[in-house]
Specification:
single chain; mainly alpha; 86% helix
Length: 544
Amino acid sequence: MSENNKMYRGTLFLTVSTFISQLLGMLYIIPFYGIMGGEENLALYGYAYTPYTIMLSVASAGVPGAVSKFVAKYNALGAFKTSEKLYKSSLVVMITSGFLVFGLLWFLAPLIADIQLIAQTDAELAWNKADITNIIRVISFAVIIVPFMATWRGIFQGFESFGPTSVSGVVEQIVRITVLLGGSFIAIKVLGGSIQLGNQVAVFAAFIAAISAAFVLFVFWRKRKPQIKKQVDSDHTGINLSYKTMYKEIITYAVPFIVIGITFPMTMFIDQLTHNNALAIAGVAEEYRDAWFGMLNITTQKLVMIPVGLASAFAISILPFITKSFQQKRFDDLEKQVSSMVVMQMFFVIPAAIGMMILAAPLYTAFYSFNEMGIKILTFYAPVCIIISLFSMTASIVQGIDKQNLTVFVVLSVLATKALLNIPMITKFYTVGATMSTIIALFIGVILNFIIIKKYGKFHFRKIIGTLFDIVLYGIVMLLAVEIVYFLFMMNFDITNRLVSVSLLAVAVPVGVIVYFILTFKSGLADKILGERANSIRRRLKFL
């Protein structure tokens, strides 16, 4: 199989699996909301996940991505014994770090609960210190296994094998949601347990899901092990790095992965610190501040995460190939890979963002309820997924060309811009201003990444400008088609009704997809981006 075919195949695996995982991750909140009985009962679930996410980052420390890059680099040099030495030791290191951070999170749980309660402004608190402490300790078990599992995925990706990551990711999400919904329903509705017990069962689902995913990876490893052994036996390079040298390189790789990984969460954290205060300066009544913040960082963010998840899949899949081409000084191949992945990513993300903008009202109403501010925020938030996608992709390319040290400065520029603009923008445009400042900050990051790639990767972006223009053009035509459907519904139905909104989406989304695909396939744009896969799709869908 050719290099490009491997890359496209890996991208397809990860994109489909990520889409399924993100879709499930968005849909489960609807029945879970019903089981728990309201936002206030879901708060305890949220209290557990914030410290869990932070500590998970500490436990993983960017190692999965760094291992993927390290293995890809030394495999490209033919030093398979070095790759073997690294991945064997890294799994031991990660399971050890998982236990250490589990213990740390367990003992820090009371302190984290105190900090959480200090941050509350509501005098009538639903949850006390003991409640929050207990649920954090329940979810801390997942920290034991998740870093180990994530590193194992990184090893597979370093060997340009993306099926294990894809399958294990979907299995993990299905098991998590099944245990979460089934367990909380039985605990509360069948056994008559407390809301606290229901939340604890729900967060414990992360641990069960991680074990399931690790088992899937083990099955794949048994199948791939003979092939990997052949590669190791063929290594006659004589390269033999010490553990100290290897882990020094891993740490060098890991830091940028951590920095990139926390970029978007940090922009949300900046919103958390400044949003309500900025609204107070703007004279917005206190009763609206928390509600609007919830719309910004929870409800609309859930909807935008599907395209963002697809971007992560592209970024993960491209890294081993970019690393390999750069290490072997194949700059022509590098340019083709970068061009292919950027336009392929935009081929899917741009129409998704445009569609979310035009369908913001029925989307928000279908998933939650009709709310003018929520719809307005989603309309402005939708383009963020394009910028985040480009940022994730370009940051991954920067790491692939061994300029990861510059990533830290790019991310600091993004966060500094966000911090400087956030209060003035929110004061001027209210909550929508927070999305605007995020777009501006991340756009600066994308431009800086492009400059680095152009300088060190010898890449010429003018070659893809025409293709990107065509994608935007066909996306706008798609928007007009969807707008007609939207207008007809508005003329005849009340779109503030949830059932009407669901019906509108059921009609408008397929119309938009069909129009976009007809335009891109008939014009030949799809062939330029998807290659032979375009003809394969044509054979299945005769109207193209």
